[in-house]
Amino acid sequence: MNLFLQLLATAGQFPTYFVLVYVVGFIATVTIGSLAWYNSKRPAGWEDAQRPDFVPDMETKTKESEEKKS
């Protein structure tokens, strides 16, 4: 909440669209980073963790698919 109030105070010093670009960029960065993290290999102890429903399942190349191409 404190961060939000600081953003509102900052908006008075800078043009609103300038602050909006940073806010939207931050939200996009967090979203894309979260998707990338969920689709990466799991750290030790997280191998069996369930993927959230909103994260798309990305296919990875396997040895079998690479052998079929050869």
H/E topology pattern = HHH
**Sheet of most strands:** none
Structural class: mainly alpha
Q: Could you tell me the radius of gyration in angstroms? A: 20 Å
- State the helicity in percent bands: 55-70%
Plain-language structure description:
The chain crosses the membrane at residues 17-38. Keywords: Membrane, Transmembrane, Transmembrane helix. Residues 58-70 have a biased composition (Basic and acidic residues). Residues 45-70 are annotated as: Disordered. This protein is mostly helical. It has a domain at 1-39. The protein contains 3 helices and no strands. It is elongated. The N and C termini lie far apart (56 Å). The mean pLDDT is 76.
Itemize the secondary structure elements and their pairings:
Elements: H1 2-11, H2 16-39, H3 63-69
Summarize the structure in short.
The chain is mostly helical and 70 residues long. It has a domain at 1-39.
Structural key phrases:
70 residues; mainly alpha; 59% helix; 0% strand
